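SEVERITY: medium
COMPONENT: batch folding queue
REPORTER: lab tech (J.R.)

DESCRIPTION
The queue accepted two submissions in a row. Attaching both inputs and their returned structure tokens so the on-call engineer can compare them side by side.

ATTACHMENT 1
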Amino acid sequence: MSQYLRMFLDESEEYLQSLNQNLLELENNPNDEQLINEIFRAAHSLKGMAATMGFDKMANLTHEMENVLDRIRAKKLVLKTEIVDILFICLDRLEKLVKEIATSGNEASDVEDIVLRLQNIKNEETSSKNSIIDDNFFDLESEEKDQILQYLKKGYFCYLLDVELVEGCLLKSVRGFMVIKSLKEIGIVIKSIPSLKDIEDEKFDYQFKVLYITKESEKEIRETVTDIIDVKGVTITRITEEDLEGQSVISTAEMEIAVTEEKIETEETPQIDRKTSQDIKVSPTIRVDIDKLDSLMNLVAELLINKTRLEEICNRMNFSNELLNDILQQLDRVTMNLQHTVMQVRMVPIERIFNRFPRMVRDLSKELNKKVNLIIEGAETELDRSIIDSLGDPLVHLLRNAIDHGIEDPETRRRLGKPEIAELRLTASQKGNEILIQVIDDGRGLDPDKIGRKGIERGLITKEEFDKMSDQEKINLIFRPGFSTSDTISDISGRGVGLDVVKRTVESLDGHIDIDTEIGKGTTFNISLPLTLAITQALLVKICDETYAIPLSVIVEAEDITPDRIQMVQGQEVFLLRGHMIPLVWSHKLLGLPVPDLNEVDQLSVVVIRTGKKYVGLIVTELINQQDIVIKSLGEFLINTPHISGATILGDGEVALILDVRNIA
């Protein structure tokens, strides 16, 4: 089973995320039967997977969840807030079990207390029973119900088939597919439990049910199904018009079945099949281990480096040949297409982490007695998988801070004339080669003077520094390690507690974070990130005699200026660019290299960089050219080197450092 453990863990996490999301929606729409059915099916699939893998605690807990959900969908139990809370506790315990299995291979946590609470729910008051949903029946749409009634009037029979496979049989999905395919040859498959897609994906135990229309006899159906290998047996129940109107299902053992030998015309079946809502199709996607994708990306990177080296060698040798040029162009095209394809494969929607937060916001707002409406926008925005995996914790910090300290309690909001329910917005959008993520709250906002005074109290700045600081510089103090405006630090968050970690994490992803805030109106955290960390376009520059790379994503433009264009404004070197004063920074100073004498140079190369909302002119020795580079990590000993974010290998085989220019303003 060990070879299936990774797949089991991945699918368990997906089911738990789906359960959390659907349960949140169900809490707001308790009468949504489709949601109830989806939650039931997810719990059922999770139970089957856990039982197959031998994880009894997970299987036992999900079985009890399934029982409760089954009573809810059968309208024998009214969904109350208390029940939703217990179901959420179940999901938390299941997540804990999944983590334990991932780390140790065993289920360490006890589930008996939750199982007992679920069993006690069964004694709750039973509600209305006016439903066609029964333990042995399906939840039919009105069109499906009408379709069955029409065929019954034409002399067809409707059957409920309960197909059981041999326990432990391999290729369950193939056996299920063969059963469905054989049934379709002599009748109409109306619906199945689980769905045909779930049967295809093997998301079922060793049993599944099929609602079926045919003119064949029970004997013929039984032989058709049991002739298939690994089918243990089939229970056939006939469905009548009365059953469809909500009467109990009549067993074949209780009634005499009128058998007809009349066959359905062979030309009729394909037409009927096209009308059915479900069809088994081969899935267009496969699950791939992330390590294999990383390996593929490394191979593409090596190919890109060698292609660049080959071009460099040809240029150096001044070698020109039509055939060689054609080969180089073709190699360049193939490499570009391969790189683009691999990059796309690694891209995943950011909803992968966004979907975690509605549950967290719900629990936290209830704990703090606040009313918060979380709005998520742009969840379909795609980002490199490696970045998304690192982004979860920083966003958790920001959201928890917003709810704990940014958003006021309902009474305060009423007093301030604000809506009682606060609005917390989490958005993602693509801006060129960058992704912008925003956490926006309509709370009390940040007070720069209060933050500055706290900075003095904590010894982070002096009174003289405070007097010279702009409001934005005071606000940015919250990113200093150990800074907090709270006199007491709660176990939930503290605005400042952990924000230095957030900033470090974002910068380690070659990203940037800044703040927009207004007292009484709210706060916005803006996080900009590159689309990928693996391969990017860069401008190569010379600083003294060394070659460096600057990512194009942060460059606005580059140009050569004469030294007389440099002016001094409030002690800062600036130059005028189309009416805008751009502050200048010497890259030589940043790197500890000798700064050239302005009297000895005729012109200076300036790379204008955008960092957040600011523009900075970075003076370099020489502009070289633009090219795709493969980003290599510096390793643990050099990872914190100031102003350097990585390295790359150039076409001549030399190593060039990549400048970290996002924080030089």
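ATTACHMENT 2
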Amino acid sequence: MASFDDLVKRRGEIAAGRAPNRATLVLGDGTCGRASGSSEVRAALSEAISSLDTEKRLAFRTTGCHGFCQIEPNVQVLPDETLYVHVKPENAQSIVEAALSGKVLKNLTYKDGQKKSCAKITDVPFYKRQMRLLSGLNVYVDPLRIEDYIAIDGYQALAKALFTMTPDFVVEEVIKANLRGRGGGGFPAGWKWDSVRKAEGEPKYVVCNADEGDPGAYMDRSLLEGNPHLVIEGMLIGAFAIGSHEGYVYVRNEYPLAVQNLIVALDQAREHGLLGKNILGSGFDFDIRINRGGGAFVCGESSALMQSIEGRPGEPIPKYVHMSERGLYNKPTNLNNVETWANVPFIVNRGADWYRTIGTEGSKGTKIFSLVGNINNTGQVEVPMGISLREIVEGIGGGIPNRRKFKAVQTGGPSGGCLPADCLDVPVDFDQLTKLGSMMGSGGMIVMDEDSCMVDVARYFTNFLVEESCGKCVPCREGVMQLRDILNDITQGRGREGDVELMEDLSKVVIDCSLCALGQSAPNPLLTTIRYFRDEYVAHIHDKKCPARRCTALISFRIDAENCTGCALCKKQCPTVAIAGEKKKTHVIDPEKCIRCGACFEVCKFDAVIKE
């Protein structure tokens, strides 16, 4: 395509070649779908459609994740929006026949908490409260077909920017929209763009940070797998506004499907005149390279990422000068993450005023979270800024399984904070989470139930950060390790008076003196658990008890004689032969042999095994 008119013409040709009312089967085929068997379902659906010679009456599309990972593999039937869950290859034939006849297979639909069938996706509680501005497009786009993206007005925002807006106006529009970086820091993207645009030096670089290393987070991966053109278009608009002609996507090497789809999308964009020289005949040149991540968590930090692209060890460096002035190869550089770039086409297409209607005063637009942990509905959720944690956990996530109570939710990844039930009604945005001692981070959200030990949770995340610290600066390398060692002692029953105060003091040093954000935020899980769950630290240190009964060194098991029936099931499960007793007689546990694995507790059907 050599002009704006060519783009419009191409979109018209694609639309003319499609029957608008033709039924379309849409299979979620992202990484989560494939892990659940979508590849086999894809093959079965293709065979069923071919055998019935129905191509003209029924279309079939494979896409990225549809968000509700727990019900994978799932198939949507458009335009009716019928949703089938946990689909198996043997269901393919009946799904095809039902789609052709307009019927609904109720046995394959989602059942809500009251076992009521939810035939349409809009009926499913998981989706009802969401605002899937970015991620909702996945259903309409096969990531390997640029035609799908053009058909839903893809690259229209780019054309609008190139032919009807000046670079200054684009920057002003993004500033006005108050788009804040979704990678964790929340810095206003427009102001960052403005700094790079005004910086002296050529060339100027545009970088997309897709090095998503947080445990439990997969929002960026899902966007790149499902709709890579949305991210590419955002980068193109940013490059035009800033005055850049070279871009990089720094993506985790552990995301093979995302890399594969991105490579195809970049090639197709070049073939269609949307990347490279003289884009759409506008005279604007821009191209994007892929740089696969170095495999370290710290490579997601901006300066470490730049070092890695330059072929150096992925370690942070002091930021005496902003990277907007001297970043990649010592040149002005703008870095935003995947989700930030994906927001840009919407702002340009619909305007900053429209964008500002979504969210809170200080945080505009939507935010994608990966909702995982002790929650009924796990998956990727996209909600407007300002929604409460309670609406996410209970309304969208469906609450805590097995009738257990909610205890805490960790937001912001391993450097985020753990928030208790008292914080559930707080609106979720950048500023509110920071006030509570946590952070937005990249969007990981881990829910914990009443059986979670918050001291052990702090130990787990602190240990993760010890393993991922690059070790370059002493406060992070030694300080975080000391915090981890003290936490280990506490969970092992070796906690001492003053440990909590010592960790608080040490955390201040780590925060103030560490070189990069990894060290500066590493104490967050520890400090928030002390702030909200201090009584658990006291119980571990003073009473040598773990209130949640999770720390194996602080718990014991015994068998209650009144409830024991002598079924011997616990005896069979014990890996250390610590349980003795004849059949139909009371059993006993030898504390010297017991390794406190809990196998006996889990299998006992008579509440005879007591954990204390």
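NOTES FROM REPORTER
The chain has 24 helices and 19 strands.
No errors were logged for either attachment.
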